[in-house]
Amino acid sequence: MRISLRQLEVFVAVCNAGSTTAAAPVVSLSQSATSAAINELESLLNTRLFDRVGKRLVLNGFGETLLPQARQLLSTASQIEQQFNTANPAIKLGLRISSSTTIGTYYLPRLLSRFSTTNSLPTPSVHIANTAEVIAKVSGFDADFGLIEGHCTNPDLFVEPWFKDELVVVCAPTYPLNQLGRKLTFKELRAARWLLREGGSGTRESVESALIPHLNTLVCAGEFSNSEAIKQAALVGLGLACLSRAVVADFLALGKLVELQTTLPPLFRNFYILTRPERTMLPHARHFLDFCRNMDH
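The structure corresponding to this sequence follows.
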């Protein structure tokens, strides 16, 4: 076999960076050596993988076909190295999980703790990001599996429903709408100012899916990149927030936030598990994933 893993590593790095100059530091090569590796790979395949547009390399159809295959091979090679490059073969390999923010912050630590009480827990590496980034991680073979709060339409991934998470509408105790002393109407909620997550967030998608069918629109009082920031913004009276009960449970218990009574129906959203069918999942990762599937939340 003439194609090397090193050539594929350089190829993936150039795909990610967009040029040999930007990719060179990532693979610890000079720009000329990086360019030579790409040229050699194209020569071995007898196919151009990139279109040359000025100094940029733009992945063409042949390159797009090779990219997921290259990522899969590199992921498998990395797993082999981790499995055998250790002084003690009995040491468990690491566990790579990519998770949406709410799950990774409020649910996953508890699951890891419960699992460790009865099982040997491999060292977890948890990547927390919004749903779009988690999908990219799992699709790119950079995680054993993903846990998301929004929908996924990536055809390369297997998506399975996990469990339902309750959403609640909260505000500061002194917020004017809380002073009405009754259930808020759709009209009042429609006129309210809402504190929202950024676009691409599973929480943002879930909140809009839950509220817009009833309110038609949401007046945005601010966009924030994490739920903790939204909690603090609600605390100081910047607007209403619709968040997971798990996120606001501490502030509700302390009286820093209050749950508003509304005419909305109960609000829930689905959490999902993402896997890449072609990825070889090692036993410890599969064991923890099965534990998550069967866990009471």
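The chain has three domains: 5-73, 95-162+271-294, 164-269.
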